[in-house]
């Protein structure tokens, strides 16, 4: 079975602990603190690999971890940073939080590499905490914990055009005739068990990528048969070609087939059903019309062309009508916006810090009424994941203070504009 989905557990590296030590040298009996900082934990990074087209590498291994940072040492020695782990995925892979289903990253377009989980920041050694009144600090900051998350990955193929239709209507034959793809072709249902991609090159045109989506059946959107397994691959296509057996070689009605498939598309995602469609009336070479019966191609045109869906009679076997069909598809693509669908990020792993119910304290400094001290594991953890020197990091820091209620507690404690807030090694002036 084509591996287009996987669920894995990812873990970033823990930050190394800061070290507590004091300088001890000959003739320096009371040396100052010289404990070094811990190393940063490794990140979990997803990267597009052009050579991959499935997620099979994640079917048999479930846990992926970056390396922890090393603790700091004596003589201001910095602990080594943990190694990142880089997970290679095919283009078009969407990474989601397994619990909520919200998108974390869409590995397509310009997004070729993304850090999904950041490693914990290394803790500061005690050399950072020496002050005029505290010259022998016996405290070092612990390294920030690792982040762990279960993610679901889904491959949604990158194609301009999707071929849809019931099993055995000739989609694979059509793809093999118009592209360099080599799909398996046989005369039984569900021959195609994976989306096949091919590139259509047209003289005087830019060409396009076409995908043969495995045969749908009625009820596919509700999980019937195999069709629902592949509906996700239609999500990025800009134009759909309905391939129908206009000769009814299996006794099905082509008009009814198109209506049923549109119903499945509507049930799966109404937005997809509104995209431009073109009907490829296949197997015209096998049509047999008895006297007095209506030509099935004309019947399709009467039914769908008034709705803005053009009908092109073709024979995938002989090649008849394929050129007209492909140039019509190219013309339709040229009229549409070039941008493919990209799934926006909805889930931010760093926000998990805000949800954790860890204790903290807000107190006025007994030696300075204009200084307020905030401490606790929740604060340490937040500082470890936040780069306060960056605009984005400081905005996250401000949101953290607001969302956790720390700003409200500072105001209740009597803080005034211009007063100082101290959080371990960080100090800043308070302004509303």
UniProtKB/TrEMBL annotation:
Its cofactor is Mg(2+). Residues 352-432 form the OCT domain. One of its GO terms (molecular function) is GTP binding. SUPFAM superfamilies: Obg GTP-binding protein C-terminal domain (SSF102741), Obg GTP-binding protein N-terminal domain (SSF82051), P-loop containing nucleoside triphosphate hydrolases (SSF52540). Residues 159-334 form the OBG-type G domain. GO terms for cellular component: cytoplasm. Pfam families: DUF1967, GTP1_OBG, MMR_HSR1. Keywords: Cytoplasm, GTP-binding, Hydrolase, Magnesium, Metal-binding, Nucleotide-binding. InterPro entries: G_OBG, GTP-bd, GTP-bd_Obg/CgtA, GTP-bd_prot_GTP1/OBG_C_sf, GTP1-OBG_CS, GTP1_OBG_dom, GTP1_OBG_dom_sf, OBG_GTPase. GO terms for biological process: ribosome biogenesis. It is found in: Cytoplasm. Its EC number is 3.6.5.-. Gene3D superfamilies: GTP-binding protein OBG, C-terminal domain, GTP1/OBG domain, P-loop containing nucleotide triphosphate hydrolases. An essential GTPase which binds GTP, GDP and possibly (p)ppGpp with moderate affinity, with high nucleotide exchange rates and a fairly low GTP hydrolysis rate. Plays a role in control of the cell cycle, stress response, ribosome biogenesis and in those bacteria that undergo differentiation, in morphogenesis control. Monomer. This is GTPase Obg.
């Amino acid at each position: 079975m084509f591996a287009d989905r996987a669920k894995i557990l990812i873990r970033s590296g823990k930050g190394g602990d800061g070290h507590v030590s004091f300088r001890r040298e000959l003739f320096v009996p009371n040396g100052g603190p010289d404990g070094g900082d811990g190393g940063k934990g490794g990140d979990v990074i997803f990267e597009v690999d052009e050579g991959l087209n499935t997620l099979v590498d994640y079917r048999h291994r479930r846990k992926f971890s970056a390396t922890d940072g090393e603790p700091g040492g004596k003589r201001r020695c910095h602990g080594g940073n943990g190694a990142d782990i880089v997970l290679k995925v095919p283009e078009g892979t969407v990474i989601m939080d397994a619990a909520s289903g919200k998108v974390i990253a869409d590995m397509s377009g310009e997004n070729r590499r993304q850090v999904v989980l950041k490693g914990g920041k290394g803790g500061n050694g005690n050399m950072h905490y020496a002050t005029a009144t505290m010259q022998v600090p016996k405290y070092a900051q612990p390294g920030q914990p690792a982040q762990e998350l279960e993610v679901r990955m889904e491959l949604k193929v990158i194609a301009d055009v999707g071929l849809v239709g019931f099993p055995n209507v000739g989609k694979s034959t059509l793809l093999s005739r118009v592209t360099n793809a080599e799909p398996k072709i046989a005369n039984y249902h569900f021959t195609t068990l994976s989306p096949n991609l091919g590139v259509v090159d047209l003289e005087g045109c830019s060409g396009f990528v076409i995908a043969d989506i495995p045969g749908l059946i009625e009820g596919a959107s509700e999980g019937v048969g195999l069709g629902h397994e592949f509906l996700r691959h239609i999500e990025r296509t800009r134009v759909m070609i309905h391939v129908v057996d206009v000769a009814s070689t299996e006794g099905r009605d082509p008009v009814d087939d198109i209506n049923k498939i549109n119903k499945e598309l509507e049930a799966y995602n109404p937005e997809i059903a509104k995209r431009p469609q073109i009907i490829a009336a296949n197997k015209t070479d096998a049509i047999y019309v008895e006297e007095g019966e209506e030509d099935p191609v004309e019947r399709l045109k009467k039914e769908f062309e008034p709705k803005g869906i053009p009908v092109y009679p073709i024979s995938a076997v002989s090649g008849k009508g394929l050129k007209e069909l492909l140039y019509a598809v190219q013309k339709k693509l040229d009229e549409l916006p070039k941008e493919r669908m990209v799934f926006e990020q909805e889930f931010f792993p760093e926000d998990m810090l805000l949800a954790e119910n860890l204790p903290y304290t807000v107190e006025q400094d007994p030696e300075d009424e204009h200084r307020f001290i905030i401490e606790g594991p929740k604060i340490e953890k937040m500082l470890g994941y936040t780069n306060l020197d960056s605009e984005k990091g400081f905005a996250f820091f401000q949101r953290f203070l607001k969302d956790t209620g720390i700003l409200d507690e500072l105001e209740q404690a009597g803080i005034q504009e211009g007063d100082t807030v101290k959080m371990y090694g960080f100090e800043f002036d308070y302004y509303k």
